[in-house]
Amino acid sequence: MDRRPVRALAQSQIETGNQITAARQLSAIGYGPTGTPHITVPAEGPKKLSEIYREHLARTESAYTLNLDPKAQLHPFCARVLSEFDRIHGYQLDAELKVLSQGATDMGSTQLPFGVQREVIRQALSDLNVLELVQTLTDFTAQATTQIPYEIRDTSQVMNDGVVYEGQPIPFA
After folding, report:
1. What is the Cα–Cα distance from 127 to 116, expressed in whole angstroms?
2. Cα separation values, 148 from 137, 151, 152, Å
3. Which branch of life, at top level (predicted)?
4. How many C-beta atoms surround the C-beta of residue 53 within 10 A?
5. Buried (b) or exposed (e) across 127-149, using 16+ Cβ within 10 A?
6. Are 173 and 154 contacting, i.e. CB atoms less than 8 angstroms apart?
7. Does this model's pTM top 0.90?
8. Cβ contacts of residue 157 below 8 Å, gap of 6+?
9. What are the pLDDT digits (tens) for 52-86?
10. Domain residue spans in the chain?
């Protein structure tokens, strides 16, 4: 007589009982999750890749103009943009880290590496002191881009596509 199926059934019942007991203990101390709770482990690939790029940037002539301190506190908007970039391009960032850790390079790709793009975003947003003066809200779920002109100009008075010949007055727009 084979006892393996009986043992497997008993083991699954024990595991189910342990889960129910844990849920009861958590609810007794006031933990009542809504939805489906899950644990998210942050990926270390983008951080390691960013450290590699910052180490190499520190050896360049323009290192004094860049924000290369890894312990520097980023503006919350900058951190949010970088985390969204990591979420969207996490797979490519991990693949780049694997390629760099193997010592090989891919000469067939003409695209700017995602790690370089991430570092450019970090450098561009880390120096914007104006972010401390304005509220920055970004909807990463938006599907369309809205163009907002700085000013509206009446170009009906501009003749000849704006080409002005010598001695002619420049028309106002």
Report:
1. 17
2. 16, 9, 10
3. Bacteria
4. 19
5. eeeeeeeeeeeeeeeeeeeeeee
6. yes
7. no
8. 171, 172, 173
9. 888 888 888 877 777 777 677 777 888 888 888 88
10. 1-37, 45-132
